[in-house]
Amino acid sequence: MKRKIVSEKFQELFGTPGDFYFSPGRVNLIGEHTDYNGGFVLPGAIDKGMLACIKENGTDKIRAFAVDLNEYEEFGMEEADKPEQSWARYIFGVVREITKRGGKVKGFDTAFSGDVPLGAGLSSSAALESTYAFALNEIFGLGIDKFELAKIGQATEHNYCGVKCGIMDQFASVFGKEGHLIRLDCRSLEYEYVPFDPVGYKVVLIDSVVKHELASSAYNKRRESCETVVKAIQKRHPEVELLRDADMNMLAEVKGEVSAEDYMRAEYVIEEIQRLLDACAALKRGDYKTVGEKMYGTHHGMSKLYEVSCEELDFLNDIAKECGVTGSRVMGGGFGGCTINLVPEDKYDMFIDKAVKEFTHKFGKEPKVYPVRIGNGSRKL
Fold first, then answer.
1. Domain residues of the chain, as ranges?
2. Spatial CB neighbours of 202, under 8 Å, sequence gap ≥ 6
3. How many Å is the Cα radius of gyration of the chain?
4. Which of 33, 89, 132, 333 is most buried, most CB within 10 Å of its CB?
5. Helix (H) / strand (E) containing 380
């Protein structure tokens, strides 16, 4: 459906057909606040994303139309040409980052649209960056490998959109593979595809519609807690560079030397890294019951130890438990956003019905429901 709308708009604006490219948003099944501690994450690309129609235009200008916003921008490709509109900066940033790496991009026309819900923590911005990085690489025959395409998206966020994100979102968008999640080592960037084919289950996100603002001061404070604990552990174990290198015994040794709060934060991270590894082992066995238990463990840790949940997310997690949902947890940095739920098919309708009704009754606003399937990464359609 979106393709038809984008195609018609492109034809109307530029009088010619173009080529279609798509990149997905992502979910992260388990592994939260592990990235900056050198741990692992377990994302998967989803069946929702960003779709762009693109064609070279023989000029040194980019003419871009955001279908969903009904906005048009035209801009050059030099540093001084940075566009006003925030959405246009993603496209501009990708072009600049390719140029910095020696790639030659010429002017092009484009129209794009997405079905990744904005602000739900599904990485709509990474999907947009990945779509253009992948497309421009193909159209202009630049020969950039997929790894570098993900880094181009990340650098766009850092240098043109003011967000110091990790690489998980762009990585999942570019490298996604149907029927698999990606176990990404955040320190070495080594990755492994882990089978994810939950027959008899559905994956659904329930959006608390609490503004997903990574309360940046709270986020920074948690990073500082982790660093403080690492410093304390290093006195006895100089080989420990990040919490990923520590275990619960090492943490116990420094209990009297760090604050109760710092101890709790570190406890969550060390346990979460182990939970992710246990979940991967369970997935390889097809043991979704254990995967679900690990997800509940993550939610408890994020709520009680890392303290990044909120009343709405805890409420949704409790309803999931009551309904016999296999696994449920807050997804993303916390302070709002979605829960991700692994739901037996025979309990799905009952769970959604109860969650929507009771949440609306309690909080006076209706949560949003996003069923997702794990799909492939960036591609030409």
1. 2-197, 202-371
2. 342, 343, 345, 348, 371
3. 22
4. 132
5. strand 379-380
Q: Is 1 exposed, middle or buried (0-12, 13-18, 19+ CB in 10 A)?
A: exposed
Phi, psi of 311 (to 5 degrees): -55, -40
Q: Report angle CA 174, 107, 25 to the nearest 5 degrees.
A: 20
pLDDT tens for 246-292 read 999 999 999 999 999 999 999 999 999 999 999 999 999 999 999 99
Q: What percent of the chain has pLDDT over 90?
A: 84
Q: Which residues contact 201 (CB under 8 A, 6 or more apart)?
A: 288, 326, 342, 343, 344, 345
The one-letter amino acid code at 27 reads V
- The verdict on domain 2-197 having CATH code 3.40.50.720 is no
Residue 330 phi, psi (nearest 5): -70, 135
Residue 209 has pLDDT above 90, yes or no: no
At what angle are helices 260-285 and 216-234 packed, to 10 degrees?
90
DSSP 8-state assignment for residue 366: P
114 SS3 class: strand
CATH of domain 202-371: 3.30.70.890
Q: Which residues are known catalytic residues?
A: 169
DSSP letter (8 states) at residue 374: B
DSSP assignment of 202-230: EEEEEE--S-----HHHHHHHHHHHHHHH
84, with CB counted inside 10 A (0-12, 13-18, 19+), is exposed
